[in-house]
Specification:
Blueprint (H helix, E strand, L loop, with lengths): L1 E5 L2 E5 L5 H7 L23 E4 L6 E2 L10 E3 L3 H16 L10 H8 L16 E2 L5 E4 L8 H10 L4 E4 L6 E4 L15 H5 L5 E3 L4 H4 L2
Parallel strand pairs: 1-5
Antiparallel strand pairs: 1-2, 3-4, 3-5, 6-7, 7-10, 8-9
């Protein structure tokens, strides 16, 4: 057991707990994008940064283990500034605002991120409807890795893979030949975890299913 103080609230945490667990136990909100509690913490997006007493830099809450005596500040200005910049950069590459109700939209709203300040290249819209149940909208992918890990860790199908780097980073199914030529078992785990609707049920996208 360890005692961690989060924004002035002391919480007792079990061995193996993270600072994100401690924040939740204290009733404090920490933004996340690459995190899914059903998956092993990944720590890729750096949206869950928090301040830690005696640490010169913010630390990722999802991968930092709790230690006795830690003092955490969930709204440390430096941490929130970095988190906001990460979300703003993700939004700047999308062809439009994220759909209301998606995790990305909710996180952007909570962090008060509106229109990106950095105009530049955006992803072209290209909907992949080769799966009988799932739509893959590549332009909405923010490379959080959750769909790939859900397919691997939750279902064990290994149907998805990460491709490219930087602006070209995305996901592919069946060696980019589409879901029908992959090991996909149509479980929907990828759509369930996606924070942007880059993978979603075709029935929820009538504008695509009618094309």
């Amino acid at each position: 057991m360890s005692t961690v103080t989060v924004d002035g609230v002391e919480v007792e945490m079990e061995a193996g707990a993270t600072l994100l667990d401690a924040a939740k136990a204290a009733g404090r909100w920490v933004p996340t994008l690459c995190f899914d509690e059903r998956q092993a913490p990944f720590g890729a997006c750096r949206v869950c940064l928090v301040g830690l007493a005696d640490s010169p830099k913010p630390v990722p809450a999802c991968t930092t283990p709790c230690r006795d005596g830690m003092e955490v500040e969930t709204e440390q200005p430096a941490a929130r500034r970095v988190a906001g910049a990460v979300v703003e950069l993700a939004l700047s590459e999308l062809p439009g605002r994220p759909a209301a109700g998606t995790e990305l939209a909710r996180v952007a709203e909570r962090l008060d991120v509106t229109e990106p300040r950095w105009p530049g290249a955006v992803h072209e819209r290209r909907g992949d409807l080769r799966h009988p149940y799932l739509a893959l909208q590549h332009e909405l992918c923010i490379s959080c890795g959750r769909c790939v890990r859900a397919c691997d860790e939750v279902q064990g199908a290994f149907a998805l893979t990460a491709t490219g780097r930087g602006f070209e980073a995305n996901i592919a199914a069946g060696l980019d030949a589409g879901f029908e030529d992959s090991t996909c078992v149509s479980c929907g785990a990828c759509a369930d975890t996606c924070p942007t609707d880059a993978i979603t049920e075709i029935g929820l996208l009538p504008q695509l299913s009618e094309e």
